[in-house]
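Side project, low priority. Logging it here so it doesn't get lost.
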Amino acid sequence: MQLADFEFVLPPELIAQEPVEPRDAARLLHAPNYAPTEGGAVEHRVFRELPELLRPGDLLVMNDSRVVPARFYGRRTTGGRVELFLLQRDGGRARALLRSRRALRPGEVIPLDGGTLEARFLARGEDGAAEVELQLAPGVCSTLEEELRRTGHVPLPPYIHRAEEGDPREERDRERYQTIYARSPGSVAAPTAGLHFTPELLQRLRVRGVEQAFVTLHVGRGTFEPVRSARIEDHRMHAEWAELPAATAERIATTRARGGRVIAVGTTSARVLESARRGGGAASAWCGWTELFLKPGDEVLAFDGLITNFHLPQSTLLLLVAALLGRQRLFELYGVAIERGYRFYSYGDAMLVWRPR
């Protein structure tokens, strides 16, 4: 299958630059279940109406990963600016996307903005990511973790336009580009389908009899790396850490036994569920690195419904939704969303779709 088949034209004004308030005021395109030959009606709702679209006994599975401040800026001794985007970190050692006008020398130390941290460039890997060592600047008495949290910038995607430094909206983004149930630090991008939930909405879902359970997938390079191969099948995902806890596996089994539906909140939750199923852990605890790339033609059985935002053309996220719905139905729904002015991407609106009968 060709990547070019998953291109579409999106008017720039539909790329959401700001989130709606309150969170659950986002629009929700609901595509009820259908047979592939039938098409199917579309409902235009508001996200806070989600309890009306689910049944008692259904189960929402949400990704509880927390976004960490992953973007840093610094200046070389020559005066050149450097941007550091952390991908994975183990203590002071990290893999990062590093951008500078001129190549760095192995061993070169870059003072980071804020004056409390330094990054020592070690080498570049075969995939282009840099190996760096993060350390406190001389004379700094706080901990490395404290300074990383204090001086790091929110890793907003590039289509959300903010000034590189000093944008007054950044402090708001620190809270808003985070789900209300995030608790496990490790992501460099938000699992954005969950951004629409409020405490009040979660309570209304519980009263409705819709249960909630959590998985973890730390969003990294695998999720947001573009597909660069012309043939979709040639793309390889970068590994990301994922976990299906025993308590969640038990809730899934109980939901299935009583005839309830499992709804993945976001493509990251969907990948955890499907990775666990393929790894033999759907009915028990599972964890590990996943490189699962769901695309049209793949069998998707671990979840019945999917809540997801509207995604970039030719992205792995878009292809995952196409794996569930098929390309034709996906583009029917995206065409409706564009025509009706839905807001796209991370701060945009959402859709609720179901596995075809």
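Brief comment: The two ends are 24 Å apart (CA to CA).
Revisit when time allows.
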